[in-house]
Prior knowledge:
The structure holds two protein chains of two kinds.
Chain A: H1 12-20, H2 23-39, H3 42-49, E1 63-66, E2 69-72, H4 100-136, H5 138-152, H6 156-170, E3 172-174, E4 177-179, H7 185-210, H8 214-221, H9 226-262, H10 274-282, H11 290-317
Antiparallel strand pairs in A: 1-2, 3-4
Helix pairs in contact in A: 1-11, 2-4, 2-11, 4-5, 4-7, 4-9, 4-11, 5-7, 6-7, 7-9, 8-9, 9-10, 9-11, 10-11
Chain B: H1 8-12, E1 38-43, H2 58-67, E2 72-74, E3 85-87, E4 95-97, E5 102-106, H3 123-133, H4 150-154, E6 164-167, E7 172-176, H5 184-187, E8 218-224, E9 228-233, E10 251-256, H6 260-268, E11 274-275, H7 281-290, E12 295-299, E13 302-308, H8 318-327, H9 330-336, E14 341-343, H10 366-375, E15 382-388, H11 393-406, E16 410-417, H12 419-426, E17 435-441, H13 447-455, H14 474-485, H15 490-507, E18 510-521, E19 526-527, E20 531-532, E21 536-537, E22 543-544
Parallel strand pairs in B: 1-10, 1-11, 15-16, 15-17
Antiparallel strand pairs in B: 2-3, 4-5, 5-7, 6-7, 8-9, 9-10, 12-18, 13-17, 13-18, 14-18, 19-22, 20-21
Helix pairs in contact in B: 8-10, 13-14, 13-15, 14-15
Amino acid sequence: MIDAPPVAAGGFRTALRRLRRNPAAIVSAIVLLMIVFACFPGAPLWVSHACNHGPSDQNIQGTITENGHKVPVVRNDGTPIGPGLRACYLLGADSNGRDLFVRILYGGRISLEVGFISAIVCVTVALVLGILSAYAGGVTDSAISRLLDLIWSFPVYLLAVALATAFAVHGIAVGPIHVASTSLAIPIVVIAIVYVPYVARPIRGQVLSLRRMEFIEAAVASGAGPVKIMLAELLPNVASMALVFLTLIVATNILTEAALSFLGVGVPLLTPSWGNIIEQGYQTIVTAPWLTIAPGLAIMITVVSLNVLGDALRDALDPHARLRIRN
Amino acid sequence: MRRILISVAVLLLAVSAGCGSGSSSSAGSAGAPVDGGTLRGAIPDNPDHLDTGISFAVEGWELLEATNNGLLTFKKAGGGQQSVIEPDIATAMPVVTDNGRTYTFQVRKNVMFSPPVNRAVRPSDFQYAIERLFHVGSPGVGFYTNIVGADAYAAHHASHISGIVANDKTGTIAFHLVKPDGAFLDDMAIPFAFAVPTGMPYKDISTDPQWRVATGPYMVKTYTPKQQIVLVRNPNFHQWTAASPKGHVNEVDITIGTTPEQAVNETIDGQLDWYMEAVPPDRFTALRAQYPKQTFLFPRNNVTYFSMNTRKPPFDKLAVRQAVNYAIDRNALVKIFGGQGIPSETVLPPGFGSSYQEHHLYPHDLAKAKQLIQQAGATGASVQIWTTNADPAPKAAEYLASALSQIGLNVTGVKAVDDSVYWDTLLTQSGDPQIAFNHFDQDFPEGEDFIDTTLNGEHIVNVGNNDVSNTDDPTLNAMIDRTKLMPLGAARNAQWAKIDAYFMQHDAGWAPFLHLEQATFVSPRLHGLIFTGSYFELIPEMWLSKQ
Lengths: 327, 547
């Protein structure tokens, strides 16, 4: 929740200079780039050059040769092979005989996609609602504010689980638009919805203060219409705030995706994501802990990097640190 | 179809080929049973009910077997013997007359209800027990609708079920059936037909000590939901035959709310003797290696399978259904179940004696499966798989998705539905899945229970439809109907085996893949474990060594 006025407009170039002088930001940006590289171009490269197993290829009855001995990928009692220095099954296999390392690479794609897309959707919707609410005022402001209050009044995970469970049966059907229950769009929409109030409210607060400023009055006096004022005058002035939110919300959304998938209401079953890889490994945490620890570490590293980068971005855009997120 | 609490059978129970101990086993060192001591048990959650008229889950029946009795009982033995029916409160097996339509029992005179009722069991108590089912929303009503007058009684057109004639003076009770039914003896051996004192309220008496009375060796002293169940010896019990064991331990204290992992740790630490659920599959191998005399794999009367909806394309084509049977590697699926199951193509489980005859119609053959899909013109057909979210069912569904993709079907997704609503959803026609993870646990150990319930097309209904595959083959239906009329025994068992094979060959609405086993881990001082498909471990047979 934002509890202070937002950053001043402009100064992106200055902010970038500040960012470059922040070693933590540089390290986290590099780590993030490495993760993105590993998950996107890296995943198919690994599959085609190191190990010919796709993320969904199951090899329950297969064997690999280690030290001259044939070792089953999954033992008769269901225990999968563990991590080892080998091209295939570097991090071991899961109960279905799938290569865990490959699944983490491909799962990262999904987790990052869900995190980023839901954050973009969330911030976009929040910008529209926040600016519209504050600028229009009156009934529009009341209606939007109460809607945000309603969403805010539910615990985030409770609301997310409820929505995801409801959509899991018949998908989303709004007029001609129909989204299948097994679509990746479901978790993206759910995650985006539950965080809208957390972004829209501070944006509304910022716009409320901006609309009384002289440059807005000047725009009105020059005959600019409401749409033009909102798009040309207000939006640029809250853009830096939205950018900071975007970075921080991505990390939150990745965690939410993991939590929802762990609870079985997130990313569809056949699509690997870090969350559902953990969920699938959790049942064997005593005998095959790597199935839970490895994707957990991937989430941790990504989220820490995003948070450090988000903090650095905030410091760069708002050196007086007026913008704060309280969890 | 009875289900286990929590992740039910599927989640925590299972079993495997080649590594099971016998179905009847004694934990630790053998020797003569010792009487006395307090058995420390645990359960993850409340049993469904402690009311013979309402309970329909394994945990409830497991406790009620120790406290209550019927006219008949299943033999207190494991393996194929568990389906043998013996007299219990009846003095002998019933006299069957009227071409198999009338069963007359003579009731023992010396069987007493526990305090506070403190009187002898009368024939009219059995009549009352069955009539009470129709007033308490019992899931067991369906077992007794073949009794003459049951329908009229259910419709409130009669004050009693006319087909039950109880005579307390002569000590006899006769049941007149609408049509012959060989499995009626099984119906009389399950808890729904156990004696209850006339006048017992038409409500769940699980927590009502005034009416929670026993006839068996133990009685429920206290039941505090979410906390504890305590069984103590029934002071009015006197053993009448070997079929009514007197029990060995003096008391059974069952803690409610113990998780499977917690139970394993407490058993290792010596704080727990017996857990009413299975060992987590991933722990069992290590436990078996470290505590070989305390670990057991007991075959359950279960079949686990993928049901294919014969009314929905592409599974409306026999070739596609057969292709699925060829496509799955049953040994691989057993591994997904922690290695705790017997790979199989049969509907009926090994515990059903001679009814179980493994057929080998579908060896794992992807090429053959693919060919059948092509012949059926189903290549590229869209398929969505349904599964409960209880582990390891989703993993089995994912395996199936992979196999179906390999044979040319287009898997659009796996829908994992919460276990609490999955089974009811599955039994409803509207929104029925194309193909789904499924399993069936016995109500009573006889072929009719599995085959008539799940494969007889005459029973297809819109809600509560156990024939999930909508199999409706007139030839199969006629075979089932004829077999149901036969008396229990080898000839009838042979017919069930034949029907099992016929279904898999000519209808193939299922792709059965394993029969689950129960992984059990007990304390070194617990002995006398006898496992049956009906009641799991028999409490009255358990005894504790002096340590």
